[in-house]
Write a structure and sequence with these properties.
By secondary structure, the protein is an alpha+beta fold. It contains twelve helices and ten strands. A four-stranded mixed β-sheet has the order 1-4-5-8, covered by helices on one side. Strands 2-3-7-6 form a four-stranded antiparallel β-sheet, with helices on one face. A two-stranded antiparallel sheet has the order 9-10. A hairpin with a 2-residue loop joins strand 9 and strand 10. The longest helix is centred in the middle third of the chain and has 37 residues.
Amino acid sequence: MERTIYEDDHEAFRDSVREFLQRSVVPHVEEHAVAKALPREFWLEAGKQGFLGLEIPEQFGGAGDLKDGDYRFNAVLMEELSFVNAALSSCVGIHSDIVAPYLVELGTADQHERWLPRVASGELLCAIGMTEPSGGSDLAALKTTGVRDGDGWVVNGSKTFITNGYSADLVVTAVRTSPEKGARGITLFGIETSAPGFSRGRKLDKVGQDESDTAELFFENVRVTEADVVGQVDGGFIHMMQKLPQERLGCAISNLAHAKQILLETLEYTKERAAFGAPIGSFQHNKFLLAELFTQVDVTQAYVDQCVLAHSKKELTPVDAAKAKWWTSEIQNRILDHCVQLHGGYGFMNEYRVARAWRDARVSKIWAGSNEIMKELIGRDLGL
C-alpha cells in the first residue's frame, strides 16, 4: 500500500540521507562492527550534513526551525539508518532524537550556548544515563545519589547498558537527590565525561548490535552544580515520563524499517535460491508465509505512520506510543526469525545480513521499557 504521510520535502531529505549513508557509512560497516563503535569521523560528517540537529534551533547550528516541529523528518532519518543496520539508528537516535530534546526543551540559556552547537555538529557526543544494574525498567527505583554539598551535589553510583556510553562526552544522568520523595525526588544532570570522578567500564560484549558502543558508567564523588541541572530539581522522573513517548516512537519506526528491509532482501533470496528444482519461494508454505509477513509489515506501517502524524501534532499519547513500541518489536522479531529460517543454514552465518539483523533485533523487546512494561501501561489505560 502506498504511504501518504510524506511530502516532497521529506523525500528530498530522504535522498540526502541515503546518499550520505551510501558514501560514508555502508563501505565501513564491517570496521564499525570490529571496533564496536561508530568513529568520531562519522559523527562529525553526520553533523556537517545537518542530520544531528533536527531537534535543535537554527541559531545553535541545528535545523529545528526549518523543520518546524515536523517529526516526519526524524522518522525519515530513523528509517534510512535502520535500513543499514539497527545499531546505527540506535546510536544516532539516542544522541539526536532523545538527548537533544531534553537539552532544548529543559535546558537553560547557558546550557543551550554551552552544549547545543557541539551536539548539532557531532563534536559533543551524547548518551542518557537511566538504566542501573539493579533497576532495569524500574526508573523510579534508581540508586545513583546526589547529596547536597554547598551550592551543588556530589554524585555517586553507576549506570549500565548505556548506548554511546563508551564514547560519550555528555551524559544526561538521572540521579536521586531527595530520597524521601521517592519518584518525585529524581533530578537530571548534564554530566560531562571529563568531570573528575567519572569513569567507564569496557565496551560491553553484546549478543547483537556490534556497531554500537555500550558501556557501564561510574560516578565516584562527581561534583555537579545548579548549572548542570537539566530541567527542575526533583522533577527528573516527570521529565523522563514526558520524553518517553518520543523515544518509544523512535524505536517503533526503527523496528519496522529494519524488519522491512531484511524481509525485502529475503524475498529476493527466495526467488534466487533453488531446491528440488524450483525457487524456494514458489513452495506453497513459503509463498503463504511471505504473504503473511508482508501483510503484517503493511498493516503495522499504517499504525506507525499514524503515530508519526500524531506526534508531529503533539497528540501522541504515552499509551499509543507503548502500543507502537511493543507491537513493532514483536513483529520485527517474528519476521526476522522467519527470514533466518527461509535462508536455511546460511541464515545462521554472521556473514549474512539476516543473521546479524536477527541478533540485533532481540534487544528491542527489552529496551526503552520492556514489552511487559508496555503491556502494563496499556492494561492500566483499560482500567485494569
